Amino acid sequence: MDSSDVAVRFDGVSRLFGEVRAVDRVSFSVTDGEFFAMLGPSGSGKTTCLRLVAGFEHPTEGRIFLSGKDVSDVPPYERNVNTVFQDYALFPHMSVQENVEYPLMIRKLPAAERRRRAGEMLELVRLPGFGARKPAQLSGGQRQRVALARALIGQPRVLLLDEPLGALDLKLREEMQVELKAIQRQLGITFIYVTHDQGEALSMSDRVAVFNHGRVEQLGTPAEIYDHPRTAFVAGFVGISNLLPAAVAERIGAGSRSFSIRPERIHMAAPTEPAAEGRCSADGTIRSVLYYGAQTRYLVGLDAGSELTVVTQNSDASGLRAAWSAGERVRLVWLRASERPIEEGVET
Amino acid sequence: MPFERRRHRGKPEGGTRPGLALRLAALGGILFLHLPLLFIVLYAFSAEDKSFVFPPPALTTRWFAVALEREDVRAALLLSLQVASVATVLALFLGTMAAAAVWRSSFFGREAISLLVILPIALPGIITGIALRSALNLGGLPFSFWTIVIGHATFCIVVVYNNALARLRRTSPSLIEASMDLGANGFQTFRHVIFPQLATALLAGGMLAFALSFDEVIVTTFTAGQQATLPIWMLNELVRPRQRPVTNVVAVFVIAITLVPILLAFYLTRHGQDAAGSGR
C-alpha cells in the first residue's frame, strides 16, 4: 500500500498498564477517507487504541504513524487529529459559539474568520442560531452535535469518535448514524469510530476491526466480518452466535470441524422433509419462540446435542398460518456452503 | 395572603414548620453568638472612656477620628492588611498547585500529602505556633514581617486547597484532554479551561484565607518579632487600656474587614455550584 494514502498505521503497538496488556501487539492500517470502526466489548482495548491515536496515551512498544509520520512521542496538541468524546467534554463556561471557535482561537485566527467558520460548522451539524447558548441549555443530542462541530472545525485529517452515540436514545441514535455517515462522505475525512454496538459498526463502516483481549481478532468489511467470522469470538460477538462443536457436527454428518452458521441461513421444516443434495439437516425440538414482528426467533435443541437459533422472516402474506410453537419436533435444513468453519485454537 | 405565602414556601422543602420551642432555641443560639458583637459595636460609640457602663451615658463618633489619628493603630492596621494580602497570594499559588497535583496524578503518599496540607487548620494554633517558632530559631531566621506571613500561609493554604480541590473534583478530566486535543498546550489549557473553572473557587478561598489571616492571634504571637498586627494590638490594649472605646472601634474595623470577604465567599461558592457543571 502506498504510504501516502494511509492515514493511521499501528506497527506492533502494545500499551501496558502495570502488568495488564490493554493493547497487545496490534498492527493495522486505516486508509485515507475510510470509515473505520473498532468494535469490541468493554476492556477489549479499543478505547485505548483510540487514545493512542489521539496522543493521550503513548505506546509501551511499537510505533504509531499518522500520514506516514511517526507520532509515537508527539503530544495531542501537535497532532492533526481531533476527538469527539463520549461525555462530549464541552467547556461549560463557554457558549456554543466559543466552544466551536476554540481550536481557531488557540491558533489565533482573526475573529471574523472564526465566527464565519463556526457558523458554517453549526450549519453542517444542523444547529444554526444556537451559538449564544451555554452547553447546559442543550439536550444530549445537541451537545453531541456541538462536540462534532468543534472537532471538525480545525479540519483534522482524522476524526476519532469514542462511543459518540452511547448516551442517546434509540431513535436519536439511528438519526445520528445516518447523519454522521453523510458528514463523513461530504468532508472526506477519515473517521475512526469506537463502539461496542455491532449494529452501528456494521451499518456505518467501510471496515471493522473486532477487538478482544487487547488484540484485533479480525479485520475486514462488515460483510466479511458477519459472513466469514474467523474465530468463535467474532462469530459470537457480531450477530447471533450459532456455534456447533466438532463432536456435534460429526454426529449430524456435517464433517468433523466445528463451524458457525447464521440463524437466517437455516430453514425450518417438518420432520418429514427429505434430505437433499448439498444440504445438511438435523432434527430437534423447539425450546422457545420469540416473536419480533418482522421476524420470529426460535431456539431449537438438537437431538445430537447443542442448540441452534433460527430466525424466520414473517414475510408470508398468508403468514397467519400457525407459526411453530415450543415443544414441536422440527428438521433444520441448511446449505453446506453456509457453514463457516471456525479456526481452532483461538476460541475464547 | 400571608397564609398563602407561608404554605407555598413550606411545601417544596417537604418539611413542616418548626415548633415554637425549636424557634426559641434557634433564636437563643443566634443571640448567644452575636449579641457580644453588638455590644462591641455599641461601645465603639460610647462617650465614656474609662469603663464599660450600660447603657452608655452618651453616643459619639469621636473615637473613630481618635483611632485613625493614633499612629500605633494605623501601623497595626497596615501591617495586618499587608500580612493578610501576602499570605493570601502565597496561599492561592501554593494551594492551587497542591490541589492540581492531588487531583491529576496519583503518586505514592498522595493521601498522606493531602492530610499534611490540611493538618495546620486542624492542629491547635499553639502547636503550629510553637513548631514554627522552634523551626525559625533553628534556622536562625530573625522574626519579621515574613515570618508572620509564613505562619499565616500554613493555614491559609488549607482553605484555598480545599476550595480548589472541591471544584476540580467536579470538573470532568476529559475537559483537559479535549482542550489538548483541540490544539491547546498545557499553559493555554490552564488559561482558557482550568482557570475559568477554578476562578470563583479561588476567589472564595482567597477571601476566606484573607479573613483568617486578618484576625489571627495565636500563631502570630509566636512568629512576630516587635511588630503588632491588629489583633495583637487589641490584645495588648485590653491589658493596658488607654482609651477603651478606641479598642472597640478597631474591633469594628476587624468585623467589617473579615465579614465582607466571608459573605462574598459564601455567595460565590453557592452560585459556583451550577456554574462548574460536570463538563457535559
Could you walk me through the main structural features you see in this protein, from its secondary elements to its overall organization?
The complex is a heterodimer of chains A (348) and B (280). Chain A has 348 residues and is of the alpha+beta class. Chain A has helices spanning 46-54, 96-106, 111-124, 140-152, 170-187, 198-204, 222-227, 232-237, 246-251; strands spanning 6-17, 20-31, 35-39, 61-66, 69-70, 81-84, 158-162, 190-195, 207-212, 215-220, 243-244, 259-260, 267-269, 279-291, 295-302, 307-313, 329-335, 340-341. Chain A is elongated and about 80 Å long. The model of chain A has no long low-confidence stretch (mean pLDDT 88). Classes of the chains: A alpha+beta (348), B mainly alpha (280). The interface between A and B is medium-sized, with 29 and 24 residues.
Structural topology:
The complex is a heterodimer of chains A (348) and B (280).
Chain A: E1 6-17, E2 20-31, E3 35-39, H1 46-54, E4 61-66, E5 69-70, E6 81-84, H2 96-106, H3 111-124, H4 140-152, E7 158-162, H5 170-187, E8 190-195, H6 198-204, E9 207-212, E10 215-220, H7 222-227, H8 232-237, E11 243-244, H9 246-251, E12 259-260, E13 267-269, E14 279-291, E15 295-302, E16 307-313, E17 329-335, E18 340-341
Parallel strand pairs in A: 3-8, 3-9, 6-7, 7-8
Antiparallel strand pairs in A: 1-2, 1-4, 4-5, 9-10, 11-12, 12-18, 13-17, 14-15, 14-17, 15-16
Chain B: H1 2-13, H2 20-43, H3 62-69, H4 71-104, H5 110-122, H6 125-138, H7 145-169, H8 174-181, H9 186-214, H10 218-223, H11 230-239, H12 244-276
Helix pairs in contact in B: 2-12, 3-12, 4-7, 4-9, 4-11, 5-7, 7-9, 8-9, 9-12, 11-12
